[in-house]
Amino acid sequence: MVHVSCGSIDHGFIDPALGLAVLTETDLTGQKASGREGARMPARRRKTIDPLTLEPGDYIVHEQHGVGRYIEMVQRTVQGATREYLVVEYAPAKRGQPGDRLYIPTDQLEQITKYVGGEAPTLHRLGGADWTKTKARAKKAVKEIAADLIKLYSARMAAPGHTFGPDTPGSASWRTRSRTRRRPTSSPPSPRSRRTWRSRSRWTA
Predict the structure, then answer these.
(1) 8 Å CB contact between 136 and 87
(2) d(CA 93, CA 96)
(3) Distance CA 147, CA 21 (A)
(4) Taking 70 as the threshold, does the pLDDT of residue 180 lie above it?
(5) Dihedral of the CA atoms 176, 180, 181, 182 (nearest 10)?
(6) Structural contact between residues 56 and 89, judged by C-beta atoms closer than 8 angstroms
(7) Please, what are the domains in the chain?
(8) What CA–CA distance (Å, rounded) separates 104 from 111?
(9) pLDDT category, 67, cuts 50, 70, 90?
(10) CA dihedral sign, ordered 189, 193, 196, 200
């Protein structure tokens, strides 16, 4: 049984007696927020995208609406208040129609991240169920990976280890000789061989 929850713990642990294995985000991804500011700052704020780094055509992922394509940043006045918005294009609701556009205020950038996949993704539809299904599949895959890691760690803990004995005098002296041994160098040619080589060189020329 695998249970995913949020908490404050630095490292995971395994308790064979209880049949319990706890894995942290660091154990799964190898990444951990460093520094006091990173520890105090919520995860959403740490991942906030910088709109100045976006180029038209870049793919972004919205927390609620899924994958879209960044178009531009514009200013709009709504009810007397002027704000900046990121314009993100999504798949059209019907074929043959232009894509739907979502205006995201710059004070809600914590809801979007930059797409980092290798291939060009398929745009989701606003209000569609595709993004919800994608998130459900991803969550299921994470649970399966966590279950496999728990089995792996449990097997490692249960496997008998092998303790090597101390070095013997013979092995210690062998390592000492191998470290101090030098590769023999070739001796310089004798005067006779030099004369022979010169005579052959003149004959060849």
Answers:
(1) no
(2) 9
(3) 10
(4) no
(5) 160
(6) no
(7) 1-32+129-156 (no CATH), 53-125 (2.40.10.170)
(8) 9
(9) very high
(10) negative
DSSP the chain: ---------SS-EEETTTTEEE--HHHHHS----SHHHHHS-HHHHT---GGG--TT-EEEETTTEEEEEEEEEEEEETTEEEEEEEEE-B-SSTTSPPPEEEEEGGGGGGEEE---SSPPPPPBTT-SHHHHHHHHHHHHHHHHHHHHHHHHHHHHHSPP-PPPPPPHHHHHHHHHHHH--PPPPPPPPHHHHHHHHHHHHHH-
Q: pTM of the full predicted structure?
A: 0.51
Residue 145 has pLDDT above 80, yes or no: yes
Compute the residue count for the chain: 205
Tokens encoding 141: 């895959």
Amino acid at 94: K
